[in-house]
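Suppose a colleague, Dr. K., hands you the sequence of a protein chain of 149 amino acids and asks what its three-dimensional shape might be. Before reaching for any lab equipment, you can write down a predicted structure in token form. Begin with the sequence itself:
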Amino acid sequence: MLAIALAAGIFSIYMRDKEKINSFVEDKFSIKVDEKNLVVKIADSAEERAQGLQNVQKLEGYDGMLFIFEEKEIVTFWNKNTLLDLDVVWISDGKVVGVDFLPNQTQGTVIVQPSEKVNMVLELPHGKAEELKITPGTLVSSSSPLQLD
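The predicted structure, expressed as tokens, is then:
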């Protein structure tokens, strides 16, 4: 129940403050992953989710990208035009349910998906999930409203 409230809190704070943001590129949001603060870009529309971190060579000024889905679903991520090796963190109702590795595009096409329905996915540079000790059961919550540059 706590996990559902955490997920709802992230989504409601984000949706409340989204109107203040002029462009997707500048959408940044502060979240906590097991009490560790991260700044993420938000992808919550079909267009933003399709673009993701394609053609990004280096993350500057943010730690990763948080994909938000209105409904829980089995989603598929692939490495088309992905220049970075990534950790893909599957999140359901504010709780991590799995972590997968998504290599950059030079390794050939790779497709990953969660073992259960999720409503959020966090992409981080490869190795960051291990560094932060993100494993199934880790809680994800909002630590503050949107941080605007």
